[in-house]
Amino acid sequence: MTLATPTLAPSLPTAVGPLSAAVLDTITGRPSRRGLYRIDAPLGDSDPYGLDLQLALHVCYELHYRGFDGVDTRWEWNPALLHLRAALEDRFEEALVREVGEIGPDETAAAEMAALSIEPVDGQGLSYHLRDEGTWEQMLEYFVHRSIYHLKEADPHAWLIPRLTGHAKAAFVAVEFDEYGAGHGDRLHQRLFCDLLGAAHLDDGYLAYLDHVPAESLTVVNLMSMFGLHRGWRGAAVGHFASTEITSPPGSHRLVQALQRLGAPAACVRFYAEHVEADAVHEQVVRTDVVGDLLANEPQLDRDVVFGIRARDLVEERLADHMTDSWAAGRSSLRRGLV
Ligand SMILES: [Fe+2]
Ligand SMILES: [Fe+2]
């Protein structure tokens, strides 16, 4: 079966402030051969969760995935740009560490994962709102926010592969194998999300909505990229991955219910239905075989796993709050409306 080729390298987004302008101006030129130099970018007291910093960071990270159309591939490992990226990351990381706060000695990864799998009886939040009263327009906005991640689903976690060993590695790759379609290009979860977008008459191009989404949507993906691209954060990356898999089945189930209530096309329902089933199995594997084996061999990573779970929760909540607050105020949750 031949699949339509999605856009390989996306177009560059539009700068939204001095930091994103500095990154975009830099990478649209040719990398200099003059060794180390400093790219001027006024970090000053920029908001670590603000759109300008998050977009600048997102563009830097994207150079490690598909890059951008017309951008020289050598920027990926350019020391001047990496130096600027590190400064952006420092700012983001400091804010996360501050907000996650102290992790007490009794707060273990096992306890954290157990807590994640308990669903509140009277749950509230974004997926409950969508299930019970969300409109189709809100659903479309939700798809757009999530497109930034789902079109590269599993890729940010895949950086973990060379950083794990033994059974944890084998079990991790077994889960990723499913995320990547278990040998079938038309079953890649990234592909299923393309199908969802197409069925909803949205643009299924990779990062097609980069100029539409707010900082909060970029932050959730930047967190995964930061954890994935730094070996020192491998415990946090595993925690992030575990949290994704554990919370996915109930959340995906509510989205299936939302989409069925709205009479959505089958391809839209399929993406979430697939996650209800697959992630229920993944959850067990991740908990016991990936996290369990990793911590049996490297117990000092326990706190990092907890940090990864909590940091994910924090950025996911920011995104969910942004959507529900915008809708409650009668506004679109996107920067640029859908036409
Ligand atoms: Fe998936
Ligand atoms: Fe999964």
Summed up, what is this model?
It contains 13 helices and no strands. It is mainly alpha-helical.
Provide structural commentary.
This is Iron-containing redox enzyme family protein. It comes from Mycolicibacterium madagascariense. This protein is mostly helical and about 350 residues long. It folds into two domains: about 20-100, no CATH class; about 105-330, Heme oxygenase-like (Heme Oxygenase, Chain A, Up-down Bundle). The protein has helices spanning about 20-25, 50-60, 80-100, 110-115, 125-135, 135-150, 155-160, 165-180, 190-200, 215-230, 235-260, 265-295, 300-330. Helix 1 (about 20-25) packs parallel to helix 2 and helix 5 runs parallel beside helix 11. The relative contact order is 0.14. Bound molecules: fe (ii) ion (2 copies). One fe (ii) ion binds near residues 245, 279 and 282.
Per-chain topology:
Layout: H1 18-27, H2 51-62, H3 79-100, H4 109-116, H5 126-133, H6 136-150, H7 155-158, H8 166-179, H9 189-199, H10 215-229, H11 234-261, H12 266-297, H13 302-328
Helix pairs in contact: 1-2, 2-3, 2-10, 3-13, 5-11, 6-9, 6-10, 8-12, 9-12, 10-13, 11-12, 11-13
Structural class: mainly alpha
Number of separate domains: 2
Q: What is the oligomeric state here?
A: single chain
Q: Any low-confidence stretches, pLDDT <50, length ≥5?
A: none
Please state roughly what percent of the residues sit in beta strands, choosing from under 5%, 5-15%, 15-25%, 25-35%, 35-45% or over 45%: under 5%
The beta-strand count equals 0
Q: Can you give the helix content as a percent range?
A: 55-70%
CATH class of the largest domain: Mainly Alpha
The major β-sheet equals: none
CATH topology of the largest domain: Heme Oxygenase, Chain A
Shape label: globular
What is the H-and-E element order?
A: HHHHHHHHHHHHH
Ends distance:
32 Å
Mean pLDDT: 95
Enumerate how many helices there are, as a single number. 13
Cα-atom radius of gyration: 20 Å
